[in-house]
Every structure is written in C-alpha cells, then in structure tokens.
Amino acid sequence: MEHLREEREQIRQLRNNLESRLKVILPDDIGAALMDGVVLCHLANHIRPRSVASIHVPSPAVPKLSMAKCRRNVENFLDACKKLDMSVNIAYSGAYLGGAVVIITLSKELKDMKRRGESYIPGLWH
User: Fold this and answer.
1) Which SUPFAM superfamilies would you find in this protein's record (predicted)?
2) I need a surface site. Which of 4, 20, 41, 121 has the fewest CB within 10 A?
C-alpha cells in the first residue's frame, strides 16, 4: 500500500514539473498523454534543445497520430535519452507505452541526476 502511495506522489510531482516546464496542461490519464511520445520528445528538447530533431504532432485535420508515428516519437525520445546519458528503460509492445512506467522511471532517473549533481533541467527540483 505504501509503495502505491509513493508511486502516486511521484506521478503527481512529475506531472506538476512537466506542466510547469513545458507550459502544457496534461489530462488526468497521464499514461495516455505520454503514449504518443509528443510530450516526451518536448521534454527531451527542453533538457537539451534539438535533441529530438523531428516530432510528429497531431493537427486539427488529423487529431490522432498513427501508431507508426507514435512509435517513432517514442523511439526518438529513447534515442535522445541515450545521447543525454539517461538510462530510461521502457518496455512497450507495438504502439502501447506504459505511461506510468515511463513517469516513474523518468522521475527516478531525474532524482538520480540531481544526487549526482547533474542538472539538465535547471530548477526542476524546488
């Protein structure tokens, strides 16, 4: 029970940080918001500009990305993480991406970076 409470708190903290840094409002289902990889790619570019050169984003004409474009966004994010020496290990099959797993893994990695004295995102920790 304590573990679940801790995970929820980590998700809440990361949601607040993502929203404040990227100037976006994420939906209640943050896993679904991360599934297409758009927010993840923007996060990578916030950490280091141009670390993801191309991001597929929905448009008013096509509000939902194809599974191939979602997958490509996630792969671009993972490639950027490698370039940033961030070890984000995410298991996903097809276009499904476990958003909560991404958040918790990314949150832990960012906290580890802080402990090592690395600050890719200035002011991320209050």
Assistant:
1) Calponin-homology domain, CH-domain
2) 4
Asked whether residue 95 is assigned to any structural domain, the reply reads yes
Domain assignment present for 73: yes
**120 domain residue, yes or no:** no
Q: How far apart are CA 91 and CA 97, in angstroms?
A: 7
Per residue in 53-83, pLDDT (tens digit) is 999 999 999 999 998 999 899 889 888 888 8
The three-point CA angle 98-104-106 to 5° equals: 95
Report the 3 state secondary structure along the chain: CHHHHHHHHHHHHHHHHHHHHHCCCCCCCHHHHHHCCHHHHHHHHHHCCCCCCCCCCCCCCCCCCCHHHHHHHHHHHHHHHHHCCCCCCCCCCCCCCCHHHHHHHHHHHHHHHHHCCCCCCCCCCC
Read off the tokens for 12.
């809440």
| Whole-structure pTM value | 0.70
CATH (domain of 51): 1.10.418.10
Decide if 126 is inside a domain.
no
What's the CA gap between 78 and 26, in Å, rounded?
21
Residue the block writes with tokens 């998700």: 11
